[in-house]
Design goal:
478 residues; alpha/beta; six-stranded mixed β-sheet; 25 strands
């Protein structure tokens, strides 16, 4: 046994906190307690991505600055990025915010298109020494290539990139760890296919592994979502000089515990964020009501915003993106964020008339507009009905489901089932979420980085947009 190596190393990991700031102070308090209990033995603290979520006022108003500050105050050693960091902030925004991060950002499957190298704030791996032991860490994030391409980034195949990094790290490291924002199924496959990884600390699919899965010599771990748990594994030195996991699991976070420094920093960031978002971006001369069950003016305004931004003749959105009516008077950036918090982008697709019709038929059914939706950028509660712009819809509620639409008109002509139309819609639909027929579109073109609230802001500033939103697109047959 090598005397210069610690006998025990504790590794704590978090993932998919999504700016649930009610948990970060308790997590910091727990970590501080674990450092005391370690009694001089080394402790490594890592995060596996999606720490940021711009649906939170604090993150939106500081563009992730609050998250970086809290990571620093808690004492993280290394992090990887999730899709909420990589896709909801531009590379320029990330470069600015991560300039203040004290932890290493590791991710091996993301390169800049212009240079063929990782962004300046990211490394493909890091070797962190703890008490004489060398811990090799690499990370990988979900490769949403169609989106990253628009931001000037190239997402590489994770398995190929990880294999290369592990082959580099293994000879130099006592312990090799992968921070995987790839999902449980991928983590299991990587453990089976890539030798030399001691622990895969996972996230992205919000899975909770109360006990690690041992696949070969690799421990697969994950701590759920929203900071409800902190993952903990213990690695003990073996007679052959290597380390092996001897204990592992997830510890529920006690929200009665607080770290005063973290709590105070969070309070200051929230105040700063609210001040930043208090800017008036538009003034309305009337309120716009919202209804998730039938046509309403605010839903129509969102559809208008998407159609004009995408430059299409037709737009289709779900009203569940909006969480309340738009009041009369001064509209602040913060209010738009409150009413439309989802980091969802517009996109353009080519859709057949029959797929448009199917989505509109479903919109008339409570099983659809009342459906609870989770993930894929959506931060609302229910799907909501469909709002359209560029179409006129005649329907009859007395007819049987899926046969209630009498006629759909586009530019004065009846919509044809087999004809393709250029449609502005939302990226989440392309994943088959909500109104699934909208995922049938071809030639998908995503528009980043603007979110729906940015499009609403532009539409509110357009003269006549409010009056236009009050014009009905849906008419009930008599």
């Amino acid at each position: 046994m090598e005397r210069n190596k610690p006998k025990t190393i504790t590794i704590l990991h978090t993932n998919d906190i999504h700016s649930h700031f009610d948990k970060v102070s308790p997590i910091a308090a727990y970590v501080a307690g674990q450092r005391e209990e370690a009694n001089g033995n080394p402790l490594l603290l890592v995060d596996v991505g999606d720490h940021m979520d711009r649906s939170a006022v604090e993150t939106e108003g500081t563009m992730g600055g609050v998250n970086v500050d809290l990571l620093n105050l808690t004492g993280y050693d290394a992090i990887t990025i999730g899709n909420n960091e990589g896709l909801t902030l531009t590379p320029e925004d990330l470069a600015k915010v991560y300039a203040d991060l004290q932890a290493q950002v590791v991710c091996c499957n993301m390169l800049e298109e212009a240079t063929g190298e990782p962004p300046s704030w990211m490394k493909t791996h890091a070797i962190i020494e703890k008490g004489g032991a060398k811990i090799g860490i690499t990370g990988a994030t979900a490769p949403f290539s169609a989106f990253y391409d628009l931001l000037g980034l190239k997402a590489l195949d994770p398995e190929t990139a990880i294999r290369r990094e592990v082959e580099l790290l293994r000879p130099q490291s006592d312990i090799v760890i992968l921070l995987s924002h790839l999902g449980l199924a991928t983590d299991q496959r990587l453990a089976e296919r890539i030798p030399g990884i001691d622990a895969i600390l996972g996230g992205h699919t919000h899975h909770l592994l109360e006990k690690p899965l041992l696949i070969g010599h690799t421990a697969v771990c994950a701590a759920g979502k929203f900071g409800d748990y902190v993952g903990k594994i213990r690695m003990d030195l073996q007679p052959d000089g290597g380390y092996r996991m001897t204990e592992g699991g997830c510890v529920p976070v006690d929200t009665d515990m607080v770290d005063e420094t973290v709590s105070k920093a969070l309070s200051l960031h929230r105040k700063h964020a609210e001040e930043t978002l208090s800017e008036t971006v538009a003034t309305t001369d009337r309120p716009l009501p919202l209804d998730h069950t039938s046509e309403s003016a605010f839903g129509n305004l969102l559809a208008q915003a998407v159609r004009r931004f995408t430059g299409t003749g037709i737009s289709i959105v779900n009203t569940g993106q909006l969480l309340g009516p738009l009041p009369e008077g001064e509209i602040s950036a913060g209010l738009l964020h409150t009413l439309c918090p989802s980091p969802v982008n517009a996109c353009v697709v080519m859709l057949k008339g029959k797929d448009i019709r199917n989505a509109l038929e479903e919109s008339l059914l409570p099983d659809f507009w009342g459906r609870e939706i989770r993930g894929f950028g959506f931060r609302g509660e229910i799907l909501g009905n469909v709002a359209v712009d560029g179409l006129e819809v005649l329907y009859d509620k007395g007819r049987i489901p899926y046969d209630r639409i009498v006629e759909i008109t586009y530019m004065g002509e009846r919509l044809q089932d087999e004809q393709e139309y250029e449609v502005g819609t939302l990226d989440m639909f392309t994943f088959g979420i909500g109104y699934e027929s909208l995922a049938m579109g071809r030639n998908q073109r995503f528009l980043l980085p603007e979110f729906l609230r940015d499009l609403l802001r532009l539409e509110l500033q357009r003269p006549g947009s409010l009056a236009e939103s009050e014009r009905n697109r849906w008419a009930e047959a008599k």
